[in-house]
Write a structure and sequence with these properties.
mainly beta; 16-stranded antiparallel barrel; two-stranded antiparallel ribbon; 2 helices; 21 strands; globular
Length: about 375
């Protein structure tokens, strides 16, 4: 999701009520997205796989209006045992790519221990450039939502997370997950400078025991992410991130590749390395802010192609540049306009690009 939503949610005035010792807040927003794809139809939010390569033909010029990002949630806080027992449940209508209600967050937290579904402990938002489009820029440490058990003390947190939902599975038959993914993160800040560092460790497996192609193997995957934001002048913020890993899979936002592949010649799992990064600047302008941001994610697929596990037409690199202006004429009303330039490149060197123009109207409560 884009950092825009977090910023708006943080300033919206939720409806509050108290029942006994419990304080509850109900919040949400209604959002209309107005989209014009100059080139290929990229969907309700940018689908980079839909970008046409230069040697591919397709219809151009597509208009889409939808309100699927609209959201509803509630939180509670209850004093308990010397700490606060907190819960959160939230959903939107982006299920199935748009049109179905889906669960975003559902968790409880007490005394530093969190259980349920929420942002991955690996990802963060310090290096995320605000975008109107719901698809974040590629290259971030992915903060997608998944089930987990997390413990946090001060700025450090450690979490056991669902091993397949976000990170993904190897390119092999009969993949399995015996262990959860382990993530660690530290976040801090001083004098307008905020930073975060995170790591993930994964065990990737396949097991075809009992079939005519009987075999099994495992490999360890890992990933590291660094991110930071800095207020360099009044109303001006710089942000950036760097993510790298081997077998990192979907923990890299916008990854072009799976975490690993089965080498048909050896029967062994081989991990795929991938790297990404973001860079951006936001400056106050009139009643709002203007943002220019860039993101890139690239996978090293040469060995996978040589082994015959991946075609040379497979995606190898995604890039995105966004320029937007987002403003609020009054509290809880937000407008925005955006131009997004997106590109993809495949292993054999072919590439393509697409331009998306987008506006939004959002009413928060």
């Amino acid at each position: 999701m884009s950092a825009l939503v977090l910023a708006i949610q943080g300033t919206a005035q939720a409806y509050s009520l108290e029942v006994g010792d419990t304080a509850a807040d109900i919040y949400g927003y209604a959002k209309l997205d107005l989209i014009y794809d100059v080139d290929a139809d990229l969907g309700n939010s940018v689908n980079r796989n839909a970008i046409l390569l230069d040697d591919q033909a397709g219809p151009e010029g597509h208009t889409t209006l939808h309100a699927y990002q609209s959201r509803l949630g509630f939180t509670t806080s209850t004093p308990a045992g010397g700490s606060d027992l907190k819960t959160m449940i939230e959903g939107d209508f982006f299920g199935g790519g748009g049109g179905s209600f889906r669960l975003r967050h559902a968790y409880g937290e007490w005394n530093g221990l969190l259980g349920g579904q929420t942002w991955s402990n690996f990802g963060g938002f310090l290096g995320m450039n605000p975008t109107i489009d719901f698809t974040p820029q590629p290259g971030l440490g992915n903060a997608g939502r998944q089930a987990q058990l997390r413990y946090t003390v001060e700025g450090f947190s450690v979490s056991l997370e669902d091993p397949e939902n976000l990170g993904g599975s190897p390119l092999a038959d009969a993949t399995k997950s015996q262990l959860p993914d382990l993530t660690l993160r530290y976040q801090g800040g001083v004098d307008g400078f905020n930073y975060g560092a995170s790591a993930v460790l994964r065990r990737l497996q396949y097991d075809t025991t009992g079939t005519t192609d009987s075999g099994k193997d495992s490999a360890f995957g890992w990933g590291l992410a660094l991110e930071a934001s800095a207020q360099v002048a009044e109303g001006v913020t710089l942000r950036g991130s760097l993510t790298h890993g081997d077998g990192i899979g979907g923990y890299l936002e916008g990854t072009p590749a799976a975490p690993a592949y089965l080498d048909p010649a050896t029967g062994e799992l081989e991990t795929i390395s991938a790297t990404g990064g973001t860079l951006g600047i936001t400056a106050a302008a009139g009643p709002g802010k203007v943002t220019l941001g860039y993101g890139v994610a690239r996978a090293d697929l040469d060995e996978a192609v040589a082994a015959g596990a991946v075609a040379d037409s497979a995606n190898e690199k995604f890039q995105a540049v966004h320029l937007n202006y987002i403003w609020s004429p009054i509290q809880n009303v937000t407008y925005g306009i955006e131009a997004g330039y997106h590109s993809r490149q495949v292993v054999d060197g072919r590439d393509g690009d697409a331009l998306r123009l987008q506006g939004m109207v959002m009413y928060s409560f």
